[in-house]
Write a structure and sequence with these properties.
Distance between the termini: 59 Å
Mean pLDDT: 90
Order of helices and strands: EHEHEHEHEEEEEEEHEHEHEHEH
Low-confidence stretches: 185-198
Radius of gyration: 21 Å
Structural class: alpha/beta
CATH class of the largest domain: Alpha Beta
CATH topology of the largest domain: Rossmann fold
CATH architecture of the largest domain: 3-Layer(aba) Sandwich
Strand order of the largest sheet: 5-9-4-1-2-3-10
Length: about 325
């Protein structure tokens, strides 16, 4: 076994971009292992498969079943296990999205194998061991992990690797799978749908406005929300505010939170500790607002405003609204 398989997550209409990132890294791993790179595309309805070939897959295992119309982990687990049993890959990569983080442990348990979660790096060493790299101890160290079990399963953070380049000249094989699933539409659990407008998707945001320890109380997040709303952006936060229960963990930016790469990142009252910087330092433009001129965030910021965020943020909102 030397093949690498990527689970191509999709929402029924299109493939999640994390799948293209995994194909790029998966291609590199498969080449080092001298094996093939495959993608498992499982859905409730037909989806185009050629893009997965263009992005590096040698084979696409394609299965359609009506029970996969809803994102029910038990059904997807059953379908993915079916593919894995036929392909027998050595390495299986799943995106560390909300769905992937829930699916992967179920697959690992069914396979009686280990799982390394939230990887930020992957490699093959000189002995052709699969090396999984992830932050540990609140992001203060990077752990290099070798699994003793097989197949080796890892979830990988979204926006950690660049998407694989498209090559429309690349040839590959699409293998249609006849999935025989039980068709349990609920998976034995109640499916809770998020209210419209409440979903947090920081990774795809063009603008992120994040608040940190500079905020004095929970209600003051209204300032951050106001600037984010004016810029049609999303609200982020540093870990201490999440730990204090001021805002949901879905808004956390950093090693133990989300990795974001927006066009513009506002760091409001954030000092710039390494744990937070790891989640946002690749933003195109970083604008820091902090009353401490020696704060580490200014070393990474493209633009810095030394001042009280309670004065600066309202003035920014006022001027932005005037311009519109």
């Amino acid at each position: 076994m030397s093949d690498v398989m990527v689970f191509a997550e999709n929402n029924g209409e299109k493939v999640h971009p994390v799948s293209y990132e995994l194909l790029g890294k998966g291609r590199e791993l498969a080449d080092k292992l001298e094996g093939e790179l495959s993608a498992a595309l499982l859905a409730g309805e037909k989806l185009p498969t050629e893009e997965l070939i263009y992005r590096g897959a040698d084979k696409v295992y394609y299965g359609i079943d009506s029970s996969l119309n809803e994102p029910v982990e038990t059904n997807y687990k059953e379908a993915l296990l079916d593919v894995i049993s036929r392909v027998n890959p050595e390495v299986i990569l799943i995106g560390a999205t909300n769905f992937g983080r829930s699916l992967a442990p179920r697959v690992a348990m069914a396979l009686d194998t280990s799982l390394t979660a939230d990887c930020t790096g992957l490699d093959i060493d000189e002995d052709k061991n699969f090396i999984q790299i992830r932050p540990a101890f609140s992001g203060n160290i990077l752990a290099h992990i070798k699994s003793r079990t097989s197949p080796q399963l890892a979830t990988v953070r979204y926006r950690e690797f660049p998407e694989a380049r498209r090559d429309e000249g690349k040839k590959g094989e699409v293998i249609e799978m006849d999935l025989s699933l039980d068709g349990d539409s609920s998976g034995g659990i109640e499916i809770l749908k998020e209210e419209h407008g409440k979903k947090v998707n920081l990774e795809d945001a063009e603008v992120v406005v994040a608040g940190g320890r500079g905020l004095k109380k929970e209600d003051d997040f209204e300032l951050i929300e106001g600037l984010a709303s004016t810029l049609e952006g999303k609200v982020g936060a540093s870990r201490p505010l999440v730990d204090d229960g001021w805002i949901d963990r879905a808004h956390q930016v950093g090693y133990s939170g989300r990795r974001v790469k927006p066009r513009i990142y506002f760091a409001c009252g954030i000092s710039g500790q390494s744990q937070h910087l790891a989640g946002m330092k690749d933003s195109d433009i970083i604008i820091a607002i902090n009353n401490d001129p020696s704060a580490p965030i200014f070393e990474y910021a493209n633009y810095g405003i030394v001042g009280d965020l309670y004065e600066v943020v309202p003035e920014l909102i006022r001027q932005l609204e005037e311009d519109h």
